[in-house]
Design brief:
By secondary structure, the chain is α/β, with parallel strands linked by helices. The chain has 2 domains: 196 residues, 3-Layer(aba) Sandwich (Rossmann fold), CATH 3.40.50.170; 89 residues, Methionyl-tRNA Fmet Formyltransferase, Chain A, domain 2 (Roll), CATH 3.10.25.10. It has 8 helices and 16 strands. Strands 5-2-1-6-7-9-10 form a 7-stranded mixed sheet. Strands 12, 13, 14, 15 and 16 form a 5-stranded antiparallel sheet that branches. Strands 3-4 form a two-stranded antiparallel sheet. The radius of gyration is 22 Å and the shape is elongated.
Amino acid sequence: MRLAFMGSPDFAVPALRALHAAGHEIAAVYCQPPRPAGRGQKETPCPVHRAALDLGLPVRTPARLRRDAAEHDAFAALDLDAAVVAAYGLILPRAMLDAPRRGCINIHASLLPRWRGAAPIHAAILAGDRETGITIMRMEEGLDTGPMLLAEAMPIAPDATAGALHDALAAMGARLVLRALAEDPAAIPQPEAGVTYAPKLTKADGRLDWAAEAAALERRVRALNPWPGTFFDHGGEQVRVLAARVEPGAGVPGMLLDDAGLVATGTAALRLLRLQRPGRAAQDADAFLRGFALPRGTVLG
């Protein structure tokens, strides 16, 4: 089948590699343009760009699509059977959605209509959902509103981080999109009930609000690991919290209840298990606290 692939982050790479390995003809790979990264702010291609070059595939990196008629014409000229989209990062205009014979097929990391939007993996953990999954859908102009072709669920483990769930869902998405292309299942409209949205996250979302419930804070630590990460302020530094556990305890929210990293919250307490200072390696709490004391009675920011 003659395809275009449209994706940018690590989540999309397994699908690109699976499509290539399955023998599909990938006429073009679309991804976000290279961006400055690292200490030297060197222009760096995104993960899909790097994977496409590794596979010897042609890459296109338009900065915008919506009002670029030349890009629309170039896409139509590819004469595609379908386009596979996975976390591309640009909105596709109607002219491009309609160009492939079987349309544009999206790999979405939730069980639609729950968690439409930019951060469905994080949102599922934050909400305490017990399961998530992949939905393969045919795209339309609305935000993740298109009819569904395939869906498959997976449980969310009690200790799952966004990073671990991301990798499992990326592999599932690669497998399911191959099925969707091979089987061409009937499209089923999404239910009107149960729609929720997962907005894009920023680094500010990682600040821990100690007045919240301990269970919600523990989920936030997992949901924002590895990015954007959760943190608190102390001693003029932002200290990252990489792992935590809910334990009994009560006190002023943010106050250390012992010398081993037990923090009072709005309800119960949170045991800090793994921490990281800026520019330093991550450490388990006992090792971290030997070099960065957080004594009982300290109130964290």
